[in-house]
């Protein structure tokens, strides 16, 4: 009876323990594996009065195993789970699991009975070891409880692993989502910035287009865009208006149509040149004909640029009609002034010129008397009379030549361009001034290069320029003692130029005022006009040359002028 009673009690206690073990999952539900194992070992230690309980969990991610140990009160308190695991090492693998052995106590002194169980079906979750010093350990009931507990824990641990895994996957997923979201946000932001940037660029382009359209359409400069064949592709309203047309009347028409006829060939050449030198600006002046036939002067700046369909020429032109008119008026005024100066000079020279003319006339009279003498009498000497008559012709011709040169200098006319022999101009002026030189006891020495090229210019202007220089030298030597020599030299110079120097042994250039002598109205003479050098310089410069002066050593001054020998007509 007693045995049965004990048995019933034992069974009741066993059932209680089983209920406690079965309740464990409710406690550890949702916990981490190490917490589940901790709870399991605590419960077993208390329930079975064990000396130690140990569990080792394999790590699903190949990391080191998790080891947990719980010790009964007699056990060594400082024992670490790893020490226990190491001591139990050879009973923790393979078939030995789920058996029972007596082994040296891994956490204390003496020996201990151990029982080990797989966590999970085949140790895949881990191993549970319970140890007790009791010799009967483990009893069947204890083995049953331990197995059930190990199974419960195995399920719980697998569950925890799964949910851990799920959690990890969930977190990884969340992380990926977060990363993708960040990426997308960033990409979105970049796109937004790009769109904003593009909008800004478009706005800038629009603005710049408007600005250029403004320049093209509203600027008071004439703009033409011409294709390589010379057809007007575009013209701005101002450009068309200046020519008396509207834009549509000009677009598509040959640009030559509005050019002054005699300018067309030169402009065609210029445009062809421009098309050869893409990107380089060229300028020229030309006349254009307005719709009604009136002519305007313009200065064009053209530049060829390459476009998809080939080169085009961009032309900007400015109306310079007024400027041209003013230049023409200035040129006329200068010509008038030069004429007045010439007449004045000739007036001063009247005595000398009269002498120059008188001399051959007097000679002719003498020769005529001689001729008459040879013809008189009974036996006229025809030969001698002819010789005298020939001399009369020569004298007359010379007088006529001098008069025609004087007439030429008195002539008032617009400048003309022709090929001029500068040596001849020098010689002619010397002839006219010879008497003036003789009167001033001045010797004239010339050194004229035989191979001097001709220059393109206005003969009368060049004569006047030369005469001004000679007269100034003669003036400068009037009051000096010692040698009085006027030396005139012509020669070829560098860069296809020729140079003439006029040197004297006169008073020299006025001290401290050398740089003023070419200014109009500057004179150091009592009756001077101060116009001679200013006119001479403008004549030389209008021929593309230069005129300058320097003092001689020991005495006198020299004037040098250069003229280009190979220029085409120069304005
Ligand atoms: P003008 O002869 O009426 O004075 P120019 O313009 O010809 O006017 O000359 C200006 C000044 O330059 C002269 O007054 C003189 O002072 C100076 N000058 C010109 N030629 C010579 C020269 N050969 N020697 C010294 N001085 C000169």
How is this structure best described in words?
- This protein is α+β, with helices and mostly antiparallel strands and 571 residues long.
- The protein has four domains: 2-165, Beta-Lactamase (2-Layer Sandwich); 219-319, Beta-Lactamase (2-Layer Sandwich); 321-414; 417-571, 2-Layer Sandwich (Heat Shock Protein 90).
- Helix content is 50%, strand content 20%.
- It contains 13 helices and 17 strands.
- The strands form four sheets. It has a five-stranded antiparallel β-sheet, sandwiched between helices. A five-stranded antiparallel β-sheet has the order 7-6-10-9-8. The protein has a five-stranded mixed β-sheet with strand order 12-14-15-17-16.
- Helix 1 packs antiparallel against helix 2, helix 1 packs parallel to helix 4 (140-218) and helix 9 (350-375) packs across helix 11 (422-439).
- The longest helix has 79 residues, at 140-218.
- The chain is rod-shaped and about 215 Å long.
- Adenosine-5'-diphosphate (ADP) binds at residues 468, 472-473, 476, 504, 506-510, 517, 522-525, 528-534, 557.
- Adenosine-5'-diphosphate binds next to helix 12 and helix 13.
